[in-house]
Amino acid sequence: MRALLVCAAAALLFVPGAHGGDLGAQLYGAGCITCHGPEGRGIADRGPSLRGAGARAADFYLRTGYMPLASPHTQPDRSRVLFSQRELAALVAYVASLAPGPRIPTPHPARGNLAEGQEQFTEHCAGCHQIVAEGGYVTNAVAPPLKHAGPVEIAEAVRTGPYLMPRFSAQQITDAQLDSIIRYVIYAKHPDDRGGWALGHLGPVPEGLVTWFVGIVLLVATCLVIGRRLHP
Amino acid sequence: MRRWLIALVVLVLGRLRRRPELDSGGRIVPPGGPDRRAESLVLLLFAGATLCGAAVPVVYAWDAIPDQTQFLGLAFGLAFAFSSAACIVIGKRLVVTEELEEDYGLSHPDDREALEQLVEESGDRFTRKRLLFLAGAGAGSALGAALLTPAASLGPVFDVSSLYRTPWHRGVRLVDETGRALRAGDIEEATFYTAYPEHADREQMGAPVVVVRLKPEQLRLPDDRRGWAPAGILAYSKICTHAGCAIALYRKPTFAPVEPRPALVCPCHYSTFDVANGGGVLFGPAGRPLPQLPLAIDASGGLRAAGNFSGPVGPSWWGVRNHGARS
To answer: For the segment A188-214, what is each residue's pLDDT rounded down to a tens digit?
Structure first.
């Protein structure tokens, strides 16, 4: 997966004059240019244009490890980020400098309302990510679990719509509602498991099923014991 | 099971070959006296079963009744309870029983004779045979009618126009959840909206639609739907044609050349409908396309329906047909 990047990084060491100049542009040239083309113009059938994507999308895709991607035909997924913080910032700044685009959002989950967040999450997100944010499926793709998503990443994803996810404008989800959604997602990472045994937070049905299987064994065992006593 | 089959064969044989009166001396089953009280009880129970069974179609047809399904269940349950109680009373009080030590034997003619005699004699105690038979048949047919009643829900069979009845017709405005009119300029690409007909009951199956926008050059609508998607804005019924779930997933590619094409997906069983070509099924158990609502943009930029859906809205069953009248 990272072979491309490693090769590119190795090549970078031998590029004369690579140590000076614009770090963002160099990293772009090493890791991104094969698919997104020179100056983020995009290459047909390989990668989309990044002009106008802005810092918001760049920050999301890089900070989650979605990019760089080994093959453009696979779904990007969360993986280890090989860039340092400084390199990340430089690369994001470079992509943002290509053309005017949206900035990195600054959500305030503390201002959000948990109950409203659950309501909004149910309405807009739970169809794919499941009500407990454990992730799910759409046809041909995986809706990732949100266990590792931080507040900024959630806000970026909602506004950007990465991969097959729809994006939601401020008209559909206001900034205040977004704060609530983020608060709910953070809460859902460690929900209040009243049953004690969460079983993947999938809700009362699997828990009930397990209870049922345990219960039926106990009942059958009790019946057997009673039967033995009556007919020794 | 085998014993039951044998008993059935013997019963049928006994019925077919009615023998002359038995001399009372050669009885196998001890004679039991008539029990008129038990018979009356059986008659009463059969009457109860008949009444309850007959109540099922009545409750089913009477839509105005509150808690209709509860009453349906009650009628069904009581009908079964009454008929089983009747059977129990018959078995315990009216049929004379004789325990046999050995297995039923069908091979020896003598055994067979004895068995037939046994069955014949067991019915000796009934004094009002015909009445009891009629009561049983009545209860049976009422129960049968009750069991067949729900089949009416599989319809409509002949007149399917009700399946096309929706609150949408030419000129109806699209509004969002808050009742605000949707404007073509507000509809963005890469996201989806739920809309309802203005001034109509939103609980109706035909009311909710999903609105999405594609680039006009992405559209591959059939020829007879030319002009149904002004400015690339499309509307589809929000109710999945498989089992009637609300379509809550929109899959939109960020980079179309290498990613799956835009589709509406039902979260229940992942039926996937192609938004570009008129709602065709790409994947999943749905058997027919998602009904499309033709759109028009009015002079002030608002979205309006340009007619009714392309097909019947809602889940499919054998009564639903794609062709037929469009109102």
So the answer is: 888 777 666 677 676 677 778 888 899
Which tokens in the block code for residue B135?
A: 């009561």
The residue among B214, B231, B221, B238 whose CA lies nearest residue B295 is B231
Residue after which a domain boundary falls, among A98, A128, A143: A98
Residue A18 has which token pair? 């690579």
Position A125 in a domain: yes
Residue A166 falls inside a structural domain: yes
The DSSP letter of residue B296 is E
- Domains annotated for chain B, with CATH where assigned, are 2-154 (no CATH), 166-305 (2.102.10.10)
Token couple for B211: 């609105």
CA distance A117 to chain B (A): 18
What is the complex's ipTM, to 2 decimals?
0.76
Return residues 109-128 of A near B (CB < 8 Å).
127-128
Task: Give per-residue pLDDT as tens, A61-111.
Answer: 999 999 998 888 889 999 999 899 999 999 999 999 999 999 999 999 999
Subunit contact B251:A161, Cβ cutoff 8 A: no
pLDDT beyond 80 at B115 = no
Could you report the per-residue pLDDT of B15-50, keeping only the tens digit for each? Answer: 766 555 545 456 777 777 778 889 999 999 999 999
Interface test with A, best of B250, B254, B259, B261 (most A CBs within 10 A): B254
Contact with chain B for residue A93, Cβ under 8 A: no
Rounded to 5 degrees, what angle do the CA atoms B121, B127, B133 make?
90
**Boundary of a domain, candidates A44, A70, A98:** A98
Please name the residues between 173 and 232 in chain A that touch chain B, using a CB distance below 8 Å: none
Same domain, A76 and A146: no
| Residue B65 neighbours by CB under 8 Å, 6+ apart | B59, B71
Any idea of the CA torsion for B229, A166, A54, A89, to the nearest 10 degrees?
-170
Q: What is the CATH number of the domain that holds A9?
A: 1.10.760
Q: Identify whether residues A7 and A94 lie together within a single domain.
A: yes
Query: Which chain B residue shows the shortest CA-CA distance from A142?
Result: B251
- Which CATH number fits the domain that encloses residue A117? 1.10.760.10
List of long-range contacts for B56-64, beta carbons under 8 Å, 24+ apart: B56/B145, B56/B146, B56/B149, B57/B145, B57/B146, B57/B149, B60/B149, B60/B150, B60/B152
Contact B188 A169 (CB under 8 A): yes
Number of domains, chain A: 3
Query: Confidence class of residue B325 from pLDDT cuts 50, 70 and 90?
Result: very low
State the nearest Cα–Cα gap between B248 and chain A, in angstroms: 6
Note the pLDDT of residue A195: 63
Pairwise CA distance, residues A77 & B256, whole Å:
18
Supply the pTM of this predicted model.
0.71
Three-class secondary structure of residue B199 per DSSP:
coil
Closest CB to B283 among A139, A161, A169: A139
Pairwise pLDDT comparison (A197 vs A17), residue with the higher score:
A197
Per-residue confidence (pLDDT) for residue A16, from 0 to 100? 40
